[in-house]
Write a structure and sequence with these properties.
Number of strands: 7
Mean pLDDT: 93
Radius of gyration: 17 Å
Shape: globular
Distance between the termini: 44 Å
Order of helices and strands: HEHEHEHEEHHEHHEH
Structural class: alpha/beta
CATH superfamily: P-loop containing nucleotide triphosphate hydrolases
CATH architecture: 3-Layer(aba) Sandwich
Number of helices: 9
Helix content: 40-55%
Largest sheet: 7 strands, parallel
Number of domains: 1
CATH topology: Rossmann fold
């Protein structure tokens, strides 16, 4: 019996990731790997960014253990989506991302990969993305950069979501930022998208992604 060790799996994944990178570049697509815990607001974040970047085509490869709830929500907003159900797996890999991207068949735009809600496994798998966007929500606590070092060090940019709840949960922004800065120089965008209130931070994050797209 052949035993496939983790190193072999990661090496195979990395080869596919490089092929994905070439595929996205050839099609002038910015691939954004969006990671975060369940309930961090990843789907809401994609929806808000799509509202800000209406002149750029937006697609999403949606990863969930089960269901198509989030993909259906984004489709209703006009964001073309493909659904990947992992059936228990805790992350997406480069192989399934290529399948999802080819289903969307998008050129000249931004494709978000909404990874499975998890702060551990997705950090190990390169998908062929250009930008690694980590959504960290205020209710999760200000200690997450200290507890999940691989994930936070992996991120190119951090969206601190649900900032309207800072006072309610006693979130210490300075402590959070100090933890992040110990391992990463990724910019932080503080986001609040509460209904009935002014949307904060999303324009700045959208501008960051627009610049990255223009560089593809």
């Amino acid at each position: 019996m052949k035993v496939i060790i983790m190193k072999e799996l990661l090496e195979a994944n990395d080869r596919l990731a490089e092929e994905n990178r070439s595929y996205f570049k050839e099609n002038h697509v910015l691939c954004v790997n969006l990671m975060g815990s369940p309930g961090a607001g990843k789907t809401t974040l994609i929806s808000a960014i799509a509202d800000e970047l209406q002149d750029i085509q937006i697609g999403v490869v949606e990863g969930d253990i089960a269901s198509s709830i989030d993909a259906d929500k984004l489709e209703q907003k006009g964001v073309h989506s493909s659904q990947i159900n992992t059936c228990g797996e805790c992350h997406l890999d480069a192989n399934v991302i290529r399948q999802g991207a080819e289903e969307i068949a998008m050129k000249n735009g931004i494709v978000f990969v909404e990874n499975v809600g998890n702060l551990i496994c997705p950090a190990e798998f390169d998908l062929g993305e250009t930008v690694r966007l980590l959504a960290a929500s205020v209710p999760e606590g200000d200690d997450k950069p200290y507890k999940y070092v691989p994930m936070f060090s992996y991120a190119d940019v951090v969206a601190l979501t649900k900032c309207d709840l800072k006072e309610a949960v006693g979130f210490d922004t300075t402590y959070f930022t100090k933890g992040l800065r110990a391992i990463s120089e990724a910019p932080i965008y503080e986001i609040s998208l509460k209904k009935g209130q002014q949307r904060e931070g999303i324009k700045e994050l959208a501008a960051f992604l627009r610049k990255k797209y223009e560089e593809v």
